[in-house]
Structures
1.
Amino acid sequence: MNKKISDKDKKDWENFLNKKKTYSPKISEKKKTENSDKNKHDWEFFLNNREKIPDKDFVFKKNVRQEKIKKIDLHGYTIAEANNAIEQFIQKSFDENVTKIIVITGKGLRSKNFENPYLSKDLSILKYSVPEYIENNKGLTQFIIETTDAKIEDGGSGAFYIYLKNKNKFK
């Protein structure tokens, strides 16, 4: 590292400190100084202005509805009871403008259908029959955007989600 400062550097530094410029500014440099003066004026106005500044990190969007989640557990229900309960629950949730329903049906591991050899093991399990009932019921499908499998923390393969349409935009 060179610690000595040359005479030219000293002279340039003194000119800089005294604001004595030895060059004539070009047109583009004049524009820069005009812009910087305008920016300085805008900045001073901004600092002196006492208006509230909106927080850009927290912008409330009017078109996005708040997520409202309801849950129904159908453990222990018969197929008829479960279908009736889910139909009423979906209608009530739609009227309350709920966005997502978590339906817990269970996996059917303790279902008594295994004792009867004349019953299909997939038919009497709510895990399969409730989503099928919803898909075949036109009165319910008009309120539903989609149904998807649940995440593991919400019941995994023993549950599913129902996403409902916005009641206010429903036609």
Note: The chain is about 40% helix and 15% strand.
2.
Amino acid sequence: MKRAWMGLIGGVMLMAGAVSGAVSGAQGRSTAEVEKKVAALEAQWLEAQKKSDPNLLAPLLAEQFVNISTDSAESNKAETLELVKKAKFVSGEYLEVKVTVFGETAIARGVFHGNGADGAEVLERWTDTWVKTGKGQWQCVASHASPMKKTK
């Protein structure tokens, strides 16, 4: 009888391990999908900056969005959209974009390098916090940028 119970327990443990592995694999695929989705949203944000088009950026930002810029100024969603509209870039690119997923939250980080129409060069490291809304959409709730020193 003891042997039968040990066999049954072993079988249950084997099945639990298989289910756990399947769930873990599904979560891995889900995480990779979220990373790609958030990276695509970041690319849309970059396009909004390059085109000075706040309409591209508006749906990406939560109503309670807060931004901390390189000069430590804080702005809400409306103010940030106005800043995007006013900024004029002749070039802009993201470098080193990385996304880390924590369930219904994702942290995106990278480097922005751009050249303004006024001749100013911009080099900043940024971090964006994204959350999945009740409607299943990903929106940015917070953004922070720090200036970087140019290396020669």
Note: The chain has one domain: 2-147.
3.
Amino acid sequence: MRGYTNGLLGALCVLAILADGPVAFGQAAAPVIPLAPGLTIVLANHDTVPAGTTTSTIVKNITQGDSEVVVTVTGVGANGFDEMISVEGVDANRRPLQLTIRRHVRAADLADSRVQVLGFHTDDPPEIPNTTSLGPSLAMMRDLRTTGRATYSVIPFLRLPTSTGTLTRVGSEPVPFPVLLNGRRVELPAIRVTGQLKFGDNLVRPWEQYILEHPQHPITLRLAYGANGTDIGSTPLFTRDVVRIDFPGQQPTQEGGAIEASLNTSCRVEMPGIYFDVDLATLKPVSTRALTTIAELLRRQPQWRISIEGHTDNSGGDAHNRDLSTRRAATVRAALIRDFAIVPGRLTSAGFGASRPVETNDTIAGRAHNRRVELVRDCAGKS
């Protein structure tokens, strides 16, 4: 059950906060953004069992140690929605592992299922009836709100044992959960639940989840489970956190409005929606919409010159991080010139490695924010 690949995102709606700075929990209610193709959620998995450690549950195509999962909605309909999952990490032999997995989640299961399949594996079918994957069902959430308890079963993926038991709500009010939303740090309202779930041959392990408090579809923002026989609150064996959510507007010109305003007033903005393969300068396909937004902005402002700046967390050495950030910024510049016919003289690029963090590198969420691309307008002479 350790090191499984997994995916997570809001199904039907996700909270979106459009603001000029960090938004604290308890401020004015956020507008609701309907689920749409391009909605992307980044998950950070932390496994205390290091890569290369042999366990009885290791099978092919399972990441070991820490890994990143990017889940993108590719289609939405009355019967449910489709998603594409990109998994990057290393396998049990410490070899790089990159997987692309697709799945369809049925609308009926989002309403009533009592079984959540957390993970995605290449051997699993693209549709698993009578299960959810992105969070518990609406029926379970109704139980948690009205009685404070809900029966629950969870499967990492179909080849591994099911864990079953009761989840109990902790406290009566939502608690804040930090997420990077369209490039801005916000706090979303979450229900905290815990439970001792049985699995295998009479084994029991503690589970904890933070679930987005949302009337149309809950999202498991964080999950953690511990070792067999340990108490709730003990050091977990595995954690998974939603660290970043990006969602598209209706049109690239609309999406670019806030970015254009920031460049006009402060001459600098963080660009959401740009994704690279882990530790590489290769753009993921989901980045195309963000690149389109930048290109449309530059066409509206033909006099602007933009510097594309790359930044990393501190996971690697200084030289490696500077090189990686430099290559990533250059890749964005090259894509705008090649694919969108932006005049080369209007664009420059530079990389700063981990030298300019915007948050602490001591947390998963902070490191996720520090890995970013910023646009900087040449405002020389601007009063």
Note: Helices lie at 107-112, 138-146, 252-265, 288-300, 318-340, 364-370.
